[in-house]
Amino acid sequence: MQFGIFTVGDVTTDPTTGRAPSEHERIKAMLAIAQKAEEVGLDVFATGEHHNPPFVPSSPTTMLGYIAARTENLILSTSTTLITTNDPVKIAEDFAMLQHVADGRVDVMMGRGNTGPVYPWFGKDIRDGIDLAIENYALLRRLWDEEVVTWKGKFRTPLQSFTSTPRPLDGVAPFVWHGSIRSPEIAEQAAYYGDGFFHNNIFWPTSHTEQMVNLYRQRYAHYGHGTPEQAIVGLGGQVFMNRNSQDAVREFRPYFDNAPVYGHGPSLEEFTTQTPLTVGSPQQVIERTLSFRDYAGDYQRQLFLVDHAGLPLKTVLEQLDLLGEEVVPVLRKEFANLRPAGVPDAPTHSARVAAAQEAPKGETQG
Fold it and tell me: Percent of the chain having pLDDT more than 70?
């Protein structure tokens, strides 16, 4: 099982000081956070993609390429790549290039995003969101799987005998996760291709996450990729820790109360009861995270959000120390002990290359 962090790259005023970082400071902080993630032994760093204030990660492959040069083991991922408004040709080439730069330590999460105005900014219509996701991803898969592509669709100009360059490293494209909070069509798409499904598991009650994950698992089996238990699932989570749980609540409350995404709404206590947000001691985070298995089954990737709402870099790095030293080692052991035989490991480039070499001729890896 893989453990890591994901960031949305927000520039938010620290409510305890009244100061917001500059864009430059926030970008540099994200780079420091990624390098710290490797230092403390995490497996994955994932960044979102946004094209509007107050967010800064508009070019994920630029950021991940920089991190690739300064890390050795960290898997570099997106927590959203906008399959709807990015050109599939550019996605194919950018992430294949990143694969080569990072020696295969790359995967990608497709999503539609949650910012409606982004569609016209890139010449698209939000009413076509699902259709764009389906058509663009179908083309992307062909661009990675086939060396010469002739294609015609609804939303972009046709391609005639086109070859995307560079080709995927070792002939195996980056592993793809499909991220969705609320769209069953995206769970269906992930299942159809035998790709991974990621639910951010932050703002919604566990009953909703359970429904989405179960739909994906059932359809994964329906399409003949394996049993429901063999489907590749990732979950998010949101934590704030202190060795003393009361101190954690006290320190995090002003950030929660003023956060743009949920401030001035339900109380911190209501939100931690109704959603997977965990504010407390490392042991409480361990226990809460282990409980995700109760409604999502045995899964392959757990990512935590730790760097939002104006939290200063020093505090975020302290959160990573607690994750790496006290939380993740216990979770690795406990999840491994609980996992039945037959549940697949989290995907890695080397494992997928080996599987591709063993597969009968003509089959490709999802």
Answer: 98
